[in-house]
Amino acid sequence: MVASTVIVTVLLAGLFAFSSSIKLLGVQRSLAIRDHLGVPPTQWRLIGLLELAGVIGVLVGLTWPPLGVAAASGLALLSVGAVIFHVRAGDGVTETTPAVIGVALAVATAVVQAI
Predict the structure, then answer these.
(1) Which SS3 state, helix, strand or coil, does residue 64 take?
(2) What is the spatial distance between Cα 89 and Cα 35, in angstroms, rounded to a whole number?
(3) What is the pLDDT of residues 50-96, one digit of tens each?
């Protein structure tokens, strides 16, 4: 296995493990972002669960690449949705950057796991 695949995958998993955990644990800052973006609480928790499933999927993808590619693609789509919500809310670069990084890391992970 190529080191770049492991590095990109672990970075993606770390980003989304953090994002998922703050949603699922109801961290105050996460709830403030949820309210600012206008996302219903049930949908916010569902997003957190999908992110957690994506983390597990990309890590398993290190041994079974088809699952990793699928999981990374799902995380990329979740991140695109996050970018859209931030743009709709009128957020600037600072607020939108984590979602853009999520898209980039997810796409990079899907590509390196597919090779």
Answers:
(1) coil
(2) 11
(3) 999 999 999 999 999 999 999 999 999 999 999 999 999 999 999 99
